[in-house]
From TrEMBL:
<dbReference type="InterPro" id="IPR001667">
    <property type="entry name" value="DDH_dom"/>
</dbReference>
<dbReference type="Pfam" id="PF13241">
    <property type="entry name" value="NAD_binding_7"/>
</dbReference>
<feature type="domain" description="DDH">
    <location>
        <begin position="152"/>
        <end position="294"/>
    </location>
</feature>
<dbReference type="InterPro" id="IPR003156">
    <property type="entry name" value="DHHA1_dom"/>
</dbReference>
<dbReference type="InterPro" id="IPR051319">
    <property type="entry name" value="Oligoribo/pAp-PDE_c-di-AMP_PDE"/>
</dbReference>
<dbReference type="InterPro" id="IPR036291">
    <property type="entry name" value="NAD(P)-bd_dom_sf"/>
</dbReference>
<feature type="domain" description="DHHA1">
    <location>
        <begin position="357"/>
        <end position="456"/>
    </location>
</feature>
<dbReference type="Pfam" id="PF01368">
    <property type="entry name" value="DHH"/>
</dbReference>
<dbReference type="Pfam" id="PF02272">
    <property type="entry name" value="DHHA1"/>
</dbReference>
<protein>
    <submittedName>
        <fullName>DHHA1 domain-containing protein</fullName>
    </submittedName>
</protein>
<dbReference type="InterPro" id="IPR038763">
    <property type="entry name" value="DHH_sf"/>
</dbReference>
Length: 489
């Protein structure tokens, strides 16, 4: 186990030393600040009120020495004493902004590494002022500070982990500027992993109902979607203050602050970047939700993943509760999901490597997504579309793996004209009002489920056939990028 010695503990270094106390191994702190010594003693740390260069109080052996007083001259004397006493130990020293050039140079030569407050401050100021990301943060802060009242941070309907984590992060950022904020959603959190996330982390979310008066809020922010009234229960005319999303918009987006970054794998990555750049501690709850959001939306860093996604995850890991995350990822499957999966398997229509299935009337929308995920594990299946209807709307969930067909574009082309559709190349969805399907001819209306099946499957398979003809056949007709035999039509 590593043995560590801290000599002096100035106000700037105090937080770093507190983190050292959390690590395995031994820690000894020598400081002349009585409050610091008493505080560390209460935490079970060996701390004494001694001068940093008081060699009589030094332990016999140490592996790492951190010289951390506020005064550079004091640190230089302590560093000289420590280097002579522990010639083989790693020696680090804090250098404040008041250090003269001679003292700074002497500490640099004497120690293995210096923690330079001046350089850190310069780097921090550069990060906060000198690039496009800094300008975005300034604009975000200006908008947040101008809001009078509570900010409603609204996710899309039936929020997934990416939406939940992003909402919690934006609430945390709003609170950092003194603005009250609430994470809100419409619909239900029914997916078992999403319920586990909320319950185990004891996340507080406001469940809004369609038609609720939101005028009591001083402002509205949208996360993980970009337009009011599209995949949320807000009126379409709602004035939006902030939009933060990683999905490509399908129509103009209006808000006082916009940050739409389609090159990122998750909105949680974007929100994490805000926290990191602003120096805001996320806390275990927010960090765990954000980390799970990134992992789910990138399918454990295998789908549409970017370098910032990895960087955000790496920054979040030390803050997150990984034991809870493990429990969230292995919840039990509900009876509703099992029943929907059974119907999806029973009613499946497989054409080549594409599978579409109608599960009829549903109670749990999230069951469609889980069924689409599970069916993708079937042999020779590389694209799944599962759909069912509830409360006057048909809901569609699709998944794809190992194909050049863009599922999001496919559903937009097939179902966008009769509803709303979109998503990623390998994960997409759609919503179609049942009123539109009522226009289908009388000879096809044996039952509502039959109508839904005829319209959805027909449009999806027809669009897939067109996409396959465009993408997949080489000159000799054999090199298909996506197997879709035409004789099955």
């Amino acid at each position: 186990m590593q043995r560590r010695l801290v000599l002096g503990c100035g106000p700037v270094a105090e937080r770093a030393v507190e983190r050292l106390a959390e690590w395995p191994g031994s820690l000894t702190v020598l400081s002349q600040r009585s409050g610091v010594v008493d505080s560390f003693r209460e935490e079970g740390v060996a701390a004494e009120r001694r001068a940093p260069d008081d060699e009589e109080a030094y332990p016999d052996e140490v592996d790492v020495v951190f010289v951390a007083a506020a005064d550079a001259t004091t640190n230089l004397e302590a560093a000289r004493t420590a280097r002579e006493r522990y010639p083989h130990a790693a020696l680090l020293a804090y250098v404040g902004t008041d250090a003269d050039s001679g003292t700074r140079e002497a500490l640099t030569e004497l120690t293995d590494r210096i923690v330079d407050a001046r350089s850190a401050l310069t780097d921090r100021l550069t990060e906060l002022t000198a690039d496009d990301a800094a300008e975005r943060l300034h604009r975000l802060y200006r908008v947040l500070k101008s809001i009078d009242g509570t900010l409603a941070v609204v996710t899309h309907d039936n929020p997934d982990p990416d939406a939940i984590g992003s909402a919690l992060a934006l609430v945390r950022i709003a609170e950092s500027v003194g603005l009250d904020a609430e994470a809100c959603y419409f619909g239900a959190i029914s997916h078992q992993e999403n319920r586990a996330l909320v319950n185990l982390l004891e996340i507080e979310l406001v469940n809004l109902e369609r038609g609720d008066d939101i005028s009591e809020y001083g402002g509205v922010a949208l996360v993980d979607h970009s337009r009011p009234g599209v995949n949320d229960g807000l009126p379409e005319e709602t004035e939006v203050d902030v939009v933060v999303d990683h999905h490509p918009p399908r129509a103009p987006v209006e808000a006082r602050f916009l940050d739409l970054r389609r090159d990122l794998g998750a909105t949680s990555t974007l929100a994490t970047d805000y926290l990191r750049r602003l120096g805001i501690e996320p806390g275990a709850t927010v960090a765990t939700a954000l980390l799970f959001g990134i992992r789910v939306d990138t399918r454990d860093f295998t789908r549409e993943v970017s370098v910032p996604d990895f960087e955000a995850a790496a920054w979040l890991v030390p803050h997150a509760d990984l034991s809870i995350l493990q429990r969230v990822e292995s919840p039990s499957m509900s009876a509703e999901v099992m029943d929907t999966l059974a119907r999806a398997i029973r009613n499946r229509d497989v054409r080549g490597e594409a599978l579409a299935t109608n599960v009829g009337e549903i109670r749990d929308r999230d069951a469609l997504a889980q069924a689409a995920d599970r069916l993708l594990d079937m042999e020779h299946v590389r694209l799944t579309v599962v759909y069912g209807f509830k409360d006057g709307t048909v809901y569609v969930s699709g998944r794809a793996r190992g194909t050049d067909v863009d599922l999001g574009e496919t559903l937009r082309e097939a179902l966008g004209p009769i509803g709303s559709a979109g998503g990623h190349a390998d994960m997409a969805g759609a919503q179609i009002p049942l009123g539109i399907l009522a226009d289908v001819g009388e000879d096809s209306r044996e039952s509502l489920s039959r109508v839904v099946n005829d319209v959805i499957s027909g449009r999806v398979f027809e669009t897939l056939e067109d996409a396959t003809r465009t993408l997949g056949v080489s000159e000799d007709g054999t090199d298909l990028t996506f197997e879709f035999p035409m004789d099955e039509w």
